[in-house]
Amino acid sequence: MYAAVDLGSNSFRLHIGEPIAGQMHIVRTARDPIRLAAGLAPDGALTPEAMEMAVRSMRDFGAILRQHRLDAVRVVATNTMRVATNAEQLLPRLEAAIGHPVEIISGEEEGRLIYMGVSAALARPGEQRLVIDVGGGSTEVIAGRGDGIELVESFSIGTHPQSAAWFPGGHIGAVSFDAAVNAARALFEDAASRYRAHGWQAAYGSSGTIRAINEVITRNRLGDGTMSVDSMLALRDRLIAAGHVDAFDLPGIKRERVIVMAGGLSVLLAAMQEFGVRAMSAINAGLRLGVLSDLELRACRSDRRDSAIQDCMRRFGVDGERARRTAAIARRLYERLAATDDNLRRHLQWSCMLHEVGQAVSHTGAHKHAAYILEHADLPGFTNREQRLMSTMVLAQKGNLRKVREALGEPDLARAVLAIRLAAVFMHARVDGDLDGLRLRMKNRIEIDTPRGWLKQHPTVAAWFDKEAAAWGEVGVGFQVTQV
């Protein structure tokens, strides 16, 4: 079984799923409507009260997770945690409360996971589709065919900022609603032509807000009773006629959710008008199901991150043969160093595949350019934390080690750094076929035993070893080479 926890801007949600006969069956759900986005102060920081509420919610979710035997858990945070200026202060508290790492994912990655969830629920491999998700702080629009994602974009507009800006105090008028829709359309208009050109056979709305809009429309037979633009305009007219969220009394939605629905409706109408969508279907699938599907894929060795690395290599013209040789050498060295962190081993391999990506910018300081690209590139499947880890290893592949001194305090990461540095040296010197007699240890110091006469056969390696001894010595690590 797998668990997905979604720290959204409106609600925190949890799904526990079990894959059975190719389908993900949800065995437990939980929802806490904490409205985290409402806790953002004018300076962009989450208030102490909002942070305490988030921590309490994570403790409750942690208790639920501990009731199940789980193969993997993934906790993802979306827009509010992306934009909160004090998110890094809250993150360790949330992780301690739930007992698992919390990943702040990019808007594009959020969109990809949403699409994966919709695709898993539909199981229509050839369908060309558009998916729209209106969240509390952002809106994701994704186009694809079957399981394949072809366009994905995250727009910085959601139910909370939209409601706060255009429906202050819960008041809703015709002028303010039109202004809200036009403001949202202005954000979508630049991307609209790309999506219209892509085309689709069916459109789906995946967020809780869209499902709430659908519920009100269908229960009250507004418009034609479907998720069409005409029906949404009829819902808009009923909201305007009420004048205030407290006066809206149609069945299908709780009173405290009306303000969220109003903001979401203005965004959804804007998106449908700009992208040329006349009608859509609301679907009970999205981010959490996408996270569960991704966890299952990783368990089956079908990892999106491998494809992301290959795509990045092609994009920047990386020499694949050199990259693969470096990765193979680093794997052998990491194993000889008796490192135990298998997760770190995978990230070392990916780092080696992209260790020369910075040469697309300049050969001078290429490792620094590569580190920047790895930290900031859009790499599907990777979290910001993972990209920072790989950036650290790539930055440390050559030159002084003072820049990564703090990271070297983690023993297996220090071994990975040594592995990528030596792998780059051995790849350049083309000695990867002559490493069988090499012994390598790293505890209080680095010890390398070479067969007698080996350094004479590879004189450039001897020069590199001298440089390595100086670099490691600067961070207080001895480096000794012995011929045996």
From TrEMBL:
Has keyword Protease?
A: no
Which Pfam families does the UniProt entry name for this protein? Ppx-GppA, Ppx-GppA_III
Q: Which InterPro entries match?
A: ATPase_NBD, GppA/Ppx_hydrolase, Ppx_GppA_C, Ppx_GppA_N, PyroPPase_GppA_Ppx
Which stretches make up the Ppx/GppA phosphatase C-terminal domain?
Answer: 305-463
Residue ranges of domain Ppx/GppA phosphatase N-terminal in the record: 21-298
- Keyword Hydrolase in the entry? The reply is yes
Q: Which domain of life is it from?
A: Bacteria
UniProt keywords (A-Z) are: Hydrolase
Q: Name the PANTHER family on file.
A: EXOPOLYPHOSPHATASE, RETROGRADE REGULATION PROTEIN 2
The protein depicted here goes by the name Ppx/GppA family phosphatase
The species this protein belongs to is Massilia aerilata
